[in-house]
């Protein structure tokens, strides 16, 4: 529904990943071009995030310039930013309607920095309105923009044969190593498992795949 509102043809769809075991992964329609992970922001995670950032800043990492990455400056918009990350890094595979608001946003923001893209989204009415209306669906009460939500969305994508984690709260994309179109879902789920292993007491994890319809 959300994709349709943003003007994307229904040849791709978001489907639930019901479990991390091979037989459950085999139920997900292929190809898969992105995985969104919903997870809780806990103290353990925040400690890890700080350490990871320092480690990458010290050691450096290889990030292709073609990776589309944006920062998150709007509270509670991590789902929208996850979705933009998923679509933006697969835009060559998507069929957009002529008047698609998301297509316009991506074309306008391609040459911008991650910070400029975040600022642009703040003013980009069409996507914000869609985000707010979809946040109201399925919930009796949508969280207010200022309410502290401790669940967060990130996107995992394959750009040029590397698996990237895109999280608008982080200063840069995280390169998780090589992947391929065939192994992408399994490789992305391995990254999701690491999130779960860091917080074994937590149950609030949910993965969604952007799959061929």
Automatic annotation (TrEMBL):
Places the protein is found: Cytoplasm
Alphabetical keyword list: Cytoplasm, Hydrolase, Phosphoprotein, Protease, Thiol protease, Ubl conjugation pathway
UCH catalytic domain segment(s): 1-212
Active site, UniProt feature: 78, 152
One Pfam family of this chain: Peptidase_C12
GO CC annotations on file: cytoplasm
Broad EC category: hydrolase
Example GO molecular function: cysteine-type deubiquitinase activity
Site, as annotated: Transition state stabilizer: 72
Residues carrying the site annotation Important for enzyme activity: 167
InterPro entries: Papain-like_cys_pep_sf, Peptidase_C12_UCH, Peptidase_C12_UCH_sf, UCH_AS
CDD domains listed in its UniProt record: Peptidase_C12_UCH_L1_L3
E.C. no: 3.4.19.12
Catalytic activity: Thiol-dependent hydrolysis of ester, thioester, amide, peptide and isopeptide bonds formed by the C-terminal Gly of ubiquitin (a 76-residue protein attached to proteins as an intracellular targeting signal)
Domain of life: Eukaryota
GO biological process: protein deubiquitination; ubiquitin-dependent protein catabolic process
Subunit structure of this chain's protein: Preferentially binds diubiquitin; the interaction does not hydrolyze diubiquitin but, in vitro, inhibits the hydrolyzing activity on other substrates.
UniProt family annotation: Belongs to the peptidase C12 family.
Protein name, entry field: Ubiquitin carboxyl-terminal hydrolase
Species: Bucorvus abyssinicus (Northern ground-hornbill)
